[in-house]
Write a structure and sequence with these properties.
about 0% strand; about 270 residues
């Protein structure tokens, strides 16, 4: 049995401090958002019992409903396309060891080295020329392209460690390579797919600059854009600002709480290669 030493005590204290650093801001967010509207103003004033009046007012005055729907559409479409394209691209890159597959893999990895700022002007011109400026599909295309290199890297690393026995048995039974991938290989990639899902969903949902660049000239707003406009309008009203912030993060927070176990599990199995 391991002894309880002073190092263990220091480690536990450090973990408690780190947990408090992350938890306290969220507790303050909830406390101010559910504060009684008649309470004294101030950024950290808390009241009991909690009130939902600020949430209702923020929902009706911030246009957060349509913004949340736009963010949901962009996030779901982007994540589905990223998973479908990246997994399909990673399968031949991991199963074939010829020079072309290795060169193609490094070509995709080179996308991780390209600074996003360097591509702003050509991408903006391209989106404008094809007539997608101000549409949700403009943001979806940018998000898919931006997240593709890292997703292909994770999928390829995972597949290189995945045994071929099941897919080879399916091919012997008469399944085509495509059928073997869809029916056998892809279900086995559930851990890394969950990791990619939550990481890309968090990034797409919280992205502010891309929607600002491509949607600012239209009525389409995402949750970060709606929150930005609302904060500028109600800077002095902290309960309403915090309520709008809570509304904007609630959907992605729920997704994270239900899928967080896949992050460590997927990285542990994917980075091994």
């Amino acid at each position: 049995m391991a002894r309880y030493t002073w190092r263990t005590l220091v480690l536990e204290i450090g973990l408690i401090v780190m947990a408090a650093i992350f938890v306290v801001p969220f507790v303050v967010l909830l406390g101010v958002a559910f504060r009684n509207p008649d309470a004294a103003q101030g950024p950290f004033g808390l009241t009991w019992p909690p009130s939902v009046d600020n949430i209702a007012i923020a929902w009706s005055t911030s246009s957060m409903g349509p913004a949340l729907l736009n963010s949901l559409v962009i996030t779901v479409a982007s994540v589905l396309l990223i998973i479908a394209i990246a997994s399909a691209a990673a399968y031949p890159l991991s199963r074939y060891r010829q020079r072309w597959s290795r060169a193609t893999f490094y070509f995709f990895l080179a996308g991780l080295l390209v600074a996003g700022q360097a591509s702003i002007l050509p991408l903006y011109t391209f989106i404008r020329d094809i007539g997608l400026m101000g549409t949700l599909w403009a943001v979806v295309l940018i998000q898919v392209g931006a997240n593709m290199p890292f997703s292909i890297f994770l999928y390829t690393s995972f597949l290189r460690e995945l045994p071929r026995d099941y897919e080879e048995a399916a091919i012997i039974d008469g399944a085509s390579p495509t059928r073997a991938f869809v029916s056998v290989v892809f279900p086995l990639m559930r851990p890394i797919t969950g990791t990619i899902l939550i990481l890309t969903a968090l990034g797409v949902w919280n992205d502010f600059f891309t929607p600002l660049l491509y949607l600012s000239s239209s009525d389409n707003k995402t949750a970060p854009l709606a929150l930005y406009s609302y904060v500028g309008q109600y800077t002095a009203d902290w309960p309403l600002v915090f309520s709008a912030l809570l509304l904007s993060i609630l959907p992605i927070l729920v997704l994270y709480l239900f899928t967080q176990r896949y992050i460590i599990k997927g990285f542990a199995s994917g980075i091994k290669g």
